Amino acid sequence: xxxxxxxxxxxxxxxxxxxxxxxxxxxxxxxxxxxxxxxxxxxxxxxxxxxxxxxxxxxxxxxxxxxxxxxxxxxxxxxxxxxxxxxxxxxxxxxxxxxxxxxxxxxxxxxxxxxxxxxxxxxxxxxxxxxxxxxxxxxxxxxxxxxxxxxxxxxxxxxxxxxxxxxxxxxxxxxxxxxxxxxxxxxxxxxxxxx
Length: 195
Known about the structure:
The protein has a domain at 49-175: RlpA-like domain (Barwin-like endoglucanases, Beta Barrel), CATH 2.40.40. Helices cover 11% and strands 24% of the residues. The chain has 3 helices and 10 strands, in the order H-E-E-E-E-E-E-E-H-E-E-E-H. It has helices at 3-13, 137-142, 172-175, and strands spanning 49-50, 63-64, 66-73, 94-97, 105-110, 116-123, 131-136, 151-157, 164-165, 168-169. The chain has a 6-stranded mixed barrel.
């Protein structure tokens, strides 16, 4: 027989063997994946829970205020008034939270990639289930949230000097809430004349 037909004959004689019923990985072998286990309780408050150290000396673990989903908002809301009375600027590092007081400084840490951003609370929301904070577009870009839409985060309130966020120290001016902006003045418009 020519060599080409010998190979075809050998293929016909070979039978498929059934798959073994035991595990594909022998006992005692290292795991094939290093993916950490998933936490499904991220939307519950973690008050009192200590967060991971970001590797910067003198920082230490921080108290996590809350964990859950973060989303972002941008162009449709740009320059509209927020609940605090300011105009929303999608290029500023601001955020919306349901209960935190306005002008509270919050360090938002991504639980996906570990990046952090310091934001100031200026609005109320989000009102979707499972979401705890809405970030401005600029803040969302800092933690890599733009492409995903929703990302799991941990929030830490920055309330004293010396705390760190994003690898840099927070200055005294950033740690304290700034004074409330003065109330906007009403424009004095003369009454309309009749013809």
